[in-house]
Structure formats: structure tokens, C-alpha cells
Write a structure and sequence with these properties.
alpha+beta; two-stranded antiparallel ribbon; 9 strands
Length: 359
């Protein structure tokens, strides 16, 4: 990744540092054999190059009283410090500091090797921190997607599992999951508290909020995340082992998927949430909203299937009843025809008897 690339660059920097330092030392040794005047000029150049390219401590050097051995030792020490610094950061120690660099001379070393190495360390630390945040987000989203998959058959179980895990994963202190539903009396849409969690304990409360009511209702209508840094005294109390205290930060995140909102998530903490955590919670809201939409779709589909099966069974029962009625009607008709034949036969017999008696 980016961290590894920067680590490779640091090795190249070490190599370049050695390439720069060794020729300078060789040059010094060779020129020390020449005249004192040229040696003095050489030491001036070495001291100037050391200050310009390796490290500028900000101290003024009096070359007239500053002997050659000290100049060489100073150059060697700076090269050793640079080498040690590079080795530290390539082993992952990004908290290491560069000797002789401080707030008073940091600006003087923007273009020196020492300053470049510090900039490289800071860049590596930034890249490493960014990768750590991305991994945290990716791991969390994967975890909650699996949680949704396991609990997709029960919205109640899903709500309870999600709120406890999200509070713990974000190191919050408490949270609540409000889902959209229709009020049984007014038939209007409201936000009902499906589950809440505080200090590692599941809380069972009854709470209903209308769209536009309070911060939660406002976040629902605007479909935008609301961050509260200044918490009203009557907003929410977090109960801890130290008593009751107001949170320092409250986030209200809409549960939204494709512009369709299914509720809001509320989390509170004694610290401020970072931007990457808010980004994660918004993505979490999309997962929850999508799962709720799917659950509702499955529920409606099941209801339709049950209704269709019930209608089919009723039709079968009606068909069976009609068949039985037809059979009974046919049997009745056959019985009537049989009796009719009997009546006709009786009448014919009576007629025959009358005719016989008349003759």
C-alpha cells in the first residue's frame, strides 16, 4: 500500500544520504593534505554545506575559532542522526524524533535532508492513520452486514443487536434506534424507539417522535446528519458509575437508502466524533435502511402469498362445496325422476283398473 511505498522511499533516502556523505568525507580527507589556506576554505565549504544540505541548527558558527575536527565531527554526527532516524521510521517507529530539530529551527530545515526526512515521517504517519481509518470502516461495515444477514428474519432482534454493537464499536456511551411506522390510532407516520443501549445494558423504553419534532424529527425531515456539540441541559443524561453527566457530542443519523428514509440513529458520547466515524455511521445507516426495506418487502410478499394461498384454499373449499351441492342436486334430481316414474306407473295402473271395471 501507500505506507509500503513510502517505506521504500525512505531506504532510497538513506542510500542517497550515504552517497552524499561519503564523497564529502573523502574530499575532506584528500584536501586536508593541502595548504592551510585551502584547508580553511575547505572547512568553510564543509560547514556551509552541512548547514545548507544536512542540518541547520540555527546557531552561528565562528569558523575562526571552530576547528576542523569539530566541523568533521559535526557533519558525521548529523549523518549518523539522519541514518538512525531513517532506520527508526522504516521499522515502523513513526513517533521517533530527529536530534537537534526543534520548534526554533524547524523552518530553517524545510529544504535540508533533515527537514525532508521529518516531512517524510509525517507523511508516512498520515498515510498509516488513513489506512487504519479505512480498515476500521471496512471491517465495521462487513461486521454489521453479517449481523443484518443473521438477524434478517426478525426486525426486533435485528434492532437490538445493531444498537448494542454500534454503541460498542464506536466507543459511544449510549444510543437509540428509531424506526418509521404508522401510529395505530392516528394512522400517521411516526418514529418509534425500536431499541436503545447504554453502558453495556439493553434498555427497554417506549418513545414515539413525530416527524419534525425535536432534533430527531428534524433529522428525519431533512434527511441529513445532525451533530450536536452544545448539548442542552434537558436533552439527555448518561448514567455512569460516577453519576449523571451530559454527553459532549450527540449524532443523529438518518437511516436512508436511495432517498428512502426508514428511521434515525442517535448515539451520544463523552467525546467528539471524528469525521471518518460520522462517515461510517452514515454508511451504517444505509445498510440498516436497506435491510429494513428488504424486510418490509419480504413481509409484504409473504402477506400476499399467504393471502393468495388463503384465497386459493377458499376457492378450493367453494369448489368442493359446489361439487357436493351438484352431487346432492343430481341425486335429488335422480330421486325425483325415479319417483316421477313411480307416479306415472301408479297412474297408468289406476287407469287400467278403471278401464277394466267399466267394461
Amino acid at each position: 500500500g501507500s505506507y509500503q511505498r513510502i517505506s521504500n522511499i525512505s531506504f532510497i533516502s538513506l542510500l542517497l544520504l550515504l552517497i552524499l556523505g561519503i564523497p564529502v568525507l573523502v574530499l575532506v580527507i584528500l584536501r586536508m593534505r593541502r595548504s592551510d589556506q585551502r584547508i580553511t576554505r575547505l572547512f568553510n565549504e564543509v560547514a556551509d554545506s552541512n548547514k545548507k544540505y544536512i542540518l541547520d541548527t540555527g546557531n552561528t558558527i565562528d569558523l575562526k575559532t571552530f576547528n576542523g575536527a569539530e566541523i568533521i565531527n559535526n557533519l558525521v554526527d548529523n549523518l549518523k542522526n539522519a541514518s538512525s532516524f531513517i532506520k527508526s521510521i522504516t521499522t515502523g517507529d513513526l513517533d521517533t524524533s530527529f536530534n537537534e530539530i526543534n520548534n526554533s529551527n524547524i523552518d530553517l530545515n524545510r529544504e535540508t535532508i533533515s527537514g525532508e526526512l521529518i516531512a517524510m515521517r509525517d507523511q508516512m504517519a498520515t498515510v498509516k492513520e488513513d489506512e487504519k481509518k479505512r480498515f476500521w470502516i471496512t471491517e465495521g461495515l462487513s461486521k454489521f452486514a453479517e449481523l443484518v444477514r443473521v438477524n434478517q428474519d426478525s426486525l426486533e432482534n435485528l434492532s437490538q443487536a445493531l444498537i448494542s454493537e454500534i454503541v460498542n464499536y464506536t466507543q459511544s456511551n449510549q444510543g437509540g434506534l428509531f424506526l418509521l411506522k404508522k401510529d395505530e390510532e392516528s394512522k400517521e407516520e411516526v418514529l418509534e424507539l425500536a431499541s436503545c443501549y447504554a453502558y453495556e445494558r439493553q434498555k427497554f423504553l417506549k418513545k414515539i417522535i413525530k416527524p419534525g419534532e425535536g432534533v430527531l424529527g428534524q433529522a428525519f425531515l431533512e434527511q441529513e446528519t445532525i451533530r450536536l456539540k452544545e448539548i442542552p441541559d434537558d436533552y439527555i443524561n448518561i448514567t455512569s458509575g460516577l453519576g449523571q453527566a451530559l454527553p459532549k457530542n450527540v449524532l443523529v443519523v438518518p437511516l436512508k437508502s436511495n432517498d428512502r428514509i426508514e428511521g434515525v440513529l442517535e448515539v451520544a458520547a463523552f467525546r467528539e466524533f471524528d469525521d471518518f466515524e460520522i462517515d461510517f455511521l452514515e454508511k451504517f445507516g444505509e445498510i440498516v435502511a436497506s435491510s429494513i426495506i428488504n424486510a418490509k418487502t419480504v413481509s409484504i410478499t409473504n402477506e400476499l402469498l399467504e393471502s393468495a394461498q388463503q384465497n386459493q384454499e377458499e376457492m378450493r373449499a367453494q369448489e368442493e362445496e359446489m361439487r357436493q351441492n351438484m352431487e346432492e342436486l343430481q341425486a335429488t334430481q335422480e330421486e325425483m325422476e325415479r319417483k316421477e316414474k313411480e307416479y306415472v306407473q301408479i297412474i297408468e295402473e289406476l287407469k287400467a283398473q278403471v278401464e277394466s271395471s267399466e267394461t
